[in-house]
Design brief:
Helix content: over 70%
Number of helices: 2
Strand content: under 5%
Order of helices and strands: HH
Radius of gyration: 17 Å
């Protein structure tokens, strides 16, 4: 695979990871709001949702970077 193609694929994967994280936040907050506000329980739920979204986004970006940089390795 050409380096430019690999770099674009890596960028696409990273953006997809960020998009999935954004969708996760939207869906999880909509679900949480349908359950009503329960004070501290709801606040903890929001923090958990944020941590999961951060993990999804980080995994997508790291995967995208690894795929993108894979084409930069010198062949032996």
């Amino acid at each position: 695979m050409r380096p430019v193609t690999r770099w674009l694929l890596g960028a696409g994967i990273a953006l997809l990871g960020l998009l999935i994280a954004a969708v996760w936040v939207r869906v999880s907050l909509a679900w949480s709001d349908s359950r009503g506000y329960e004070g501290e329980v709801t606040e903890i739920r929001y923090i958990v949702f944020a941590c999961i979204a951060l993990a999804i986004a980080a995994a997508g970006v790291v995967t995208g970077v690894l795929v993108g940089l894979g084409g930069l390795r010198k062949r032996r």
